[in-house]
Description:
By secondary structure, this protein is α+β, with helices and mostly antiparallel strands. The protein has 2 domains: 22-161, CATH 2.40.50; 174-306, CATH 2.40.50. 19% of the residues lie in helices and 41% in strands. The chain has helices at 2-17, 30-36, 100-110, 174-183, 250-253, 278-288; strands at 22-29, 42-52, 66-70, 79-82, 114-127, 139-150, 155-157, 185-191, 194-201, 207-215, 220-222, 225-234, 237-246, 265-276, 293-294, 299-306. Strands 2-3-4-6-5 form a 5-stranded mixed β-barrel. Strands 10-12-13-16-14 form a 5-stranded mixed beta barrel. Strands 1-9-8-15 form a 4-stranded antiparallel sheet. A hairpin with a 2-residue loop joins strand 11 (220-222) and strand 12.
Amino acid sequence: MRYVLQFLFFILINSLNQETFAQKIFSVPYDFLEKCTKGITIRLDNVKITGNSNVHALEDDCEMHFGATCDDYNGDPRGLVLEPMNLCDMPYFNKEEQSNADWNQFAKQLKNRKVSVEGVPRIWPEHLAGKESPSNPNHALEIHPVTKIITPQETFDFSEFIYIPGEYEGGVKEESARKIIKTLSVMVRKEGNEVEIEFESSRIGNFTTLQLQLEKSLIKKEAGGHSLKGSVNFTGESVDVDCVTVEGSLVDKNLNKLFGKRRQKIKREVLVLFSLNPSSLLEAANRSNGQQVTVINPLQLIIYGVSE
Length: 308
């Protein structure tokens, strides 16, 4: 009996020391994926707002979340979440002081209306299933960050709201960020207009602060911002990553200034949002021929700002 208990104890300890890998499966339309590769941002029309969250506190990301559906998006799940940044810090348009009440009133006016939305398509399966709410339906697609919400009467431009608010460093700590970057595995299979995506990682999360090395010669201007090639260092180990900045944001405007006149490479602390890379997903889908294939360089980091 003593040996049986020792064996069971060994199995328990061994299982606790192993990484737990979460597998998530969802799908996006192939033609939508193609649209996502035409630039950094996209525009979606016929987006119906179903509800909104409160304005989140600074330590929780400073955003407001809008749940939505879109007539032109038929992924699985079909839900959509829109996330303008820094509403806990920014005053409502043409106001001088920030007020959560102003943003809540803005959201109330949008509920059950159809609008057009522009922003970065973030494919990230953090809430595929489970408890839903009008502000947070089951979804794999977000417009995050939102750059514009367009009604028949007015255009609301959020592009300058993209920056690091106060001392915010994101909710994902360095060790968890390292595990996302190092352990993420993504497979796709294309059948007709459906691209099935299998996502597997030991961690999942949203914002984090990383030390990122960027190379000036690898910056590329694209519609809606810039794409960049970078690398992240974890205790001497370097991992290559694809990054984007968003047109209108402070970091996008000042991208070349970060390097100065002579430097070709820089290392800076940056606030980033994890996402899958639409171009890498599309490239893999085009290789699929109905078979499951591995996505090369599946991760994309959306840069919100550079720490001072």
